[in-house]
Design goal:
Mean pLDDT: 86
Bound molecules: adenosine-5'-diphosphate, magnesium ion
Structural class: alpha/beta
Largest sheet: 5 strands, parallel
Radius of gyration: 33 Å
Low-confidence stretches: 85-107
Number of strands: 8
Shape: elongated
Distance between the termini: 84 Å
Order of helices and strands: HHEEHHEHHEHEHHEHEHEHHHHHHHHHHH
Number of helices: 22
């Protein structure tokens, strides 16, 4: 009794110093065996926890017990395997390692996908929070976790992130990660080879079951039946289940109602297509991973150009970086723009007439038509004039003579000169380029 009280006081002190997640992870299974003279003997359920506690928290335990009990004590950690909780009841004996390898449930999760490198934004923050909650309390509150969303939005990444996080908290966790096709194939094979028992042992003994793209269970009655029982058994044992799909359960065709209702009984969250800010953040993270640096403006340009999922976005980024490397160009906004063909993308304005071009330019620069076509040569008028020359020539395919005529009777060589000058500026001057694109955009708006 006295021992328990002392231990509680020590735990209180420890609790104040570390996150609640870490506290639960490392101290919930520890207990105070006794205080033996100058020695405080703490018992833990496994060698792993003992090792981790002494690595991470020995000082903290020492300090906390001194604060709580008023004297300095030597800390000793002992393993008491009878304390091992049932759920993670894998004493990591050599035999187990062997069995794990034999039965193919060695947790081979691609370490590339972690929660740390999952970029969080508005499109996926709920799913991310759910993932974190699962890692902190697997098998309890949200079971199953059902992640759904379009292709390339990060479902598999997040699911493996959960697996890797749980694994790093407890390396003994038995995990199976597979696609729904793999589960189906295993099932079919087990029937053919009459090894149903083995299959069941394998899938029903895990602490964490991750099944990707569950929509492929559609129409597979036998598989669904088998999975239903697997699911129930795992849920009863408080083993965590995480599923992904392209759609919410009720939208998956030919899926048994009882499975639908099981899937809906946990936590369902969707991951949406990344919004602009998330796309920028994803690009930034992917650059960092590859040791590349792109400035904010470059990232913005790419994120703007591709309103797409994370996978495609990363693909585009890699493409751009590769092409620039081949061309021996440093990535900067200008070359990125060139690559993106922003300028070409604003399609030729076929159905706009020259009057509309001039009016739009005047409106944009807030000048009068008289000024634009008049003789004055102030800088404020020269840029709009040159821009008009360029657009009339490139987009409306007017001759330089005609353009000269429209712009107040200017010589065709003047037009040629102005047109070429602005063309160059568009490729070299950020400000001019911006203006050019904006003017073209207002014109495209008129363009039917
Ligand atoms: P899904 O399973 O939804 O089709 P994936 O999880 O396979 O998509 O993600 C596709 C690619 O995009 C992967 O390389 C993944 O790492 C990356 N990815 C997706 N979402 C994110 C994110 N939020 N942060 C970082 N990378 C992401
Ligand atoms: Mg996937």
């Amino acid at each position: 009794m006295e021992t328990q009280k002392s231990w509680n006081r020590i735990l209180e002190k420890i609790k104040q110093q570390i996150s609640s997640a870490n506290f639960r992870t490392w101290f919930s299974s520890a207990s105070l065996k006794n205080i033996n003279g100058e020695k405080l003997i703490i018992s833990v359920p496994s060698a792993f926890i003992k090792e981790q506690l002494s690595l991470r928290y020995l000082n903290l335990i020492e300090l906390s017990s001194e604060q709580a009990l008023g004297k300095k004590l030597q800390i000793e950690l002992v393993v008491d395997s009878s304390k091992a909780p049932k759920k993670n009841a894998v004493q990591f004996e050599e035999e187990d390692i062997f069995q794990l390898n034999q039965s193919n449930i060695t947790p081979i999760l691609n370490p590339k996908y972690t929660l740390e490198n999952f970029v969080v934004g508005l499109s996926n923050n709920v799913a991310y929070a759910a993932a974190q909650a699962i890692v902190q309390n697997p098998g309890t509150s949200y079971n199953p976790l059902f992640l759904y969303g379009g292709t390339g939005v990060g479902k598999t990444h997040l699911m493996l992130g959960i697996g890797n996080a749980i694994l790093s908290k407890n390396p003994h966790t038995k995990i199976i990660y597979c696609s729904s096709e793999k589960f189906t194939n295993d099932y079919v094979e087990a029937i053919q080879t009459r090894r149903m028992g083995e299959l069941r042992n394998r899938y029903r003994s895990v602490d964490l079951l991750l099944i990707d793209d569950i929509q492929f269970f559609s129409g597979r009655e036998g598989t669904q039946e088998e999975f239903f029982h697997t699911f129930n058994e795992l849920q009863t044992k408080n083993s965590q289940i995480v599923l992904t799909s392209d759609n919410p359960p009720n939208m998956i065709a030919k899926l048994e109602d009882r499975l639908k209702s099981r899937f809906q009984g946990g936590l369902m969250v969707d991951i949406q297509m990344p919004d602009f800010d998330t796309r920028v953040a994803i690009l930034k993270a992917k650059c960092q991973e590859r040791g590349e640096v792109l400035d904010e403006e470059c990232l913005n340009l790419i994120a703007q150009a591709f309103e797409t999922n994370a996978r495609e976005l990363e693909g585009k980024l890699i493409q751009i970086l590769q092409i620039l490397k081949i061309q021996n160009k440093e990535p900067n906004p200008q070359v990125i723009r060139e690559y993106l063909g922003q300028t070409n993308k604003l399609a030729a304005l076929q159905n706009v007439n020259h009057k509309q071009v001039l009016t739009s330019i005047c409106e944009y620069f807030n000048i009068s038509l008289g000024d634009l076509t008049g003789p004055k040569r102030q800088k404020e008028l020269v840029l709009p004039r040159h821009l008009a020359m360029h657009i009339l020539s490139e987009d409306l395919k007017m001759t330089v003579e005609k353009i000269g005529h429209i712009l107040g009777g200017r010589d065709h060589t003047t037009v040629m000169h102005g047109r070429d000058r602005i063309k160059k500026l568009i490729n070299t001057d950020r400000e001019v380029q911006k203006i050019f694109i904006e003017v073209k955009q207002t014109l495209s708006a008129i363009n039917p």
